[in-house]
Amino acid sequence: MVRFAYFCNVVTYLSDCFLQVTNAYTQASMENNKVKKVYTCAIAGTVELVGGKWKTSILLHLKDRTLRFSELQRAIVVSQKVLTQQLKELERDGLVQRQAYAQVPPRVDYSLSAYGQTLQPVLEALYDWGVRHSTRESAQNEATAEHLQ
Asked: Could you give phi then psi for residue 9, rounded to 5 degrees?
């Protein structure tokens, strides 16, 4: 679980770095008064979609299964407001599907869309890199501690 949290922090850091470095500009689109972002770097567009503290966690938890809102909230341990906001953004971007059922009590299921499934190799690669990085960093910290003794 610690490694997973570390992975999410790495993605958040990368997101902040890429968005600061990459020159993104907005181009007004006359269709439905939407603003279309055009990036000079493809990575920035990807990071824009999955960046943020909780989006990668949500996508990884939905990787192989459909979860109800409350199950996602328990798995990620985030406030209802933040989870709702992140899910709406992921749904808007076409990465997550929301299925609402007309019953009492209300039931809403979330799953990855077909488009969201295409991100899985990328997320797995980031996760693997995060694990290797944390192992490398731990080894460096141990070496520094030994050197100081």
From this structure: -65, -35
3-state secondary structure of 127: helix
Tell whether the model's pLDDT for residue 22 goes beyond 50. Answer: no
Angle formed by the axes of helices 120-148 and 42-50, to 10°? 90
SS3 39: strand
Query: Stretch 38-55: mean pLDDT, rounded?
Result: 82
**What domains does the chain contain, in order, with CATH numbers?**
1-53 (no CATH), 65-116 (1.10.10.10)
Nearest CA to 64 out of 117, 128, 126, 5 is that of: 117
Q: What are phi and psi of 26, to 5 degrees?
A: -105, 145
Decide if 40 contacts 22 (C-beta within 8 A): yes
Q: How many residues does the chain have?
A: 149
- Res 41 pLDDT > 90: no
